[in-house]
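Subject: mismatched residue count in predicted assembly?

I count 311 residues in my input, but I want to confirm that the predicted structure covers every chain. Input:
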Amino acid sequence: MTELLDMGKYGPYIWGAYGASLVVIIGLMIWVLAERKATKTQLRELLEMTGSKSDA
Amino acid sequence: MFSYFANPERFLKLAKWLVPPLCVLGLAGMLIGLGAGLFVAPPDYQQGDAARIMYVHVPAAWLGMFAYAFLAFASLINFVWRHNLADAAAKAAAPIGAAFTFLALLTGSLWGKPMWGAYWVWDARLTSMLVMLFMYLGYIAVRSIVPDEARAARLAAIIAMVGAINLPIIKFSVEWWSSLHQTSSVFRAGGPAIEFSMLWPLLVAALGYTAFFGWLVLLQMLTELDRHKIARLQRRLAGGRISRPDAPQRRLEDD
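Triage response: the counts match. Full output below for your records.
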């Protein structure tokens, strides 16, 4: 386990790079999905308000 | 082909069909590629385990450049033909491309410290990548600051197209100028210079990153199209062309 974390003394750089990548990838996913959900909800509410039909 | 998919109905049909497989391919590719890069691929004979940073750095850099080329192309289509879908594609790609360019610079910096002894050097490759990040940020800033949507799209498209000049500079910077950054090891004359056991996780990760980008861009485009619908409905509501079912039975024009 220590060997895995140490990665031949480059551990902080390697785990730092993978950690940053994970944060950016998950952050992008959350941002895009949250925007999608919020927009769909707003559109559905507006459609209900106006009585229009849509596949939203 | 462009005119065929320029039809929003056809685009919606295709996008809704593509979204699930791109999500699966993207997440699986990243998981397998990055996992293999971390635990399966052998250490480099010179750099040791530090070379494992390559599996997160190189796909992010490739994707940053690919996304910029996509942004510039979509901006060109929108600039010439004023096409809403092309504009939505450009608008969707910009923040995602910027995030991956930032990630390439950050992971490159973490790779540079143990190999070069510094987190940052004003090297041609690093500097031209930083310029690309600024072009992305300029595009995003113009789209956020200029209130008129059509004018913002045209101004931002000009920034995107001008910034495309930087793409060949990034690619050939390591050959044109003396650079600390290594030359291309994969896309080079004579084939890849990387051993297959190290190459396949890199290619799988790159495929995963690209599919993930496609998934995010399609979702953002669908969101952007919904925003257009919302704006249209709000304009109609504000103009009194639609009466709310719960509103008093009185036409707004009567006021």
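DSSP finds eight helices and no strands in chain B. Marking this ticket as 'not a bug'.
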